[in-house]
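To: structure subgroup
Subject: Chain for Friday's discussion

All,

I'm putting the inputs and outputs inline so they're searchable in the archive.
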Amino acid sequence: MKKYLEYDIEDFVWDDYFRQWVLIPTRESDNFWKNWIVQYPEKAKLIEDARTLVKALKVNEQSLSDQEIQNVVRHTLELAEEKEAAENFEQPGFISINRKFWIQAAAAVAILVGLSWGVKTNFVPKNSVNVSYEKLVSNTSSLLTETLNEHENPLPVKLSDGSLVILTKGSRISYPKTFSGSKREVFLSGEAFFEVTKNPEKPFLVYANGLITKVLGTSFRVRAYESDKDVTVEVKTGRVSVFAQSDPKIKEKATNRELEGVVLTPNQKIIYAREDVRLTKSLVEAPVMIATEKSKQSFEFEDTPVSEVLLAIEKAYSVDIVFDEELLANCPLTASLTDLQLFEKLNIICKGVEARYEILDGQIVIYSKGCKQ
């Protein structure tokens, strides 16, 4: 994809498709990256440096203890401190790179631990924080109003800033009558859909079973029942960030105006495993087209290159699709895909050109050998 032209070394190191090629290469991924380097030879040195760093930071797929994770982080920092007097350093098995990046890499080692290639998994510190709904509500200094949905039908709740919350049966939410201060905070137990009024100056935060969802103005769903082991956040429009309440930088992430933590875009979701304190990013089960594209997009194709078809789908659903544009440009497709769901579209496309796809870290990766002329 053309987005790789804008990548620096850090972007490549944390890109799942790139790491998969380095650590667990397949014929398709190998062809993709080799062709990409041929197409953009000026990036060859950057790619090689990123490959070297990925191998240096390679971790086992088995779960590691907190102490083992700390040892890996400490070892990485020690490597940087040994050379801190120099602006750059070289060492067998490692690339020349500044100390600042090594510190960033050390901080991110815990994110890599336990990575599976179907999704991206983030581990966060297991601090002893009581994050039950009752405890959070009782600890807040604001006077809160609680709404409980005791009915079968969804219950709409209008907040003072104009935001709309739709509670499912048995769910409850606590919120102030008027939002004051630099942020808008609500507390959820159960499941609700949020339509948040945009206000970049005052972030909107939802606290639910140890997970904090932060937005500036968007729509999303949160499922956080006390009896469930997982908390799920699904994004419909806009962008949201999520982070665990045990995060040591929780105050900074909650108060600033930027979206930090794991950032989700439309049709992506995050699953927070409460017991393991782990965040897993993927796509929602039934992605939908974004509203701005729904009215103008047609999916009727006749001898259309598959590369163009995939680009149209990528734009319509606002999801990243990774594929070899040059390889699939020679594959024509004639099909009517208008009334099909996203994954149904992909299944037909892949069958037509003998390809397959996987969901990796909220992205769709297409594997194909191309088409013979």
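Points worth raising on Friday:
The longest helix spans residues 66-82.
The first strand starts at residue 89 and ends at 91.

D.
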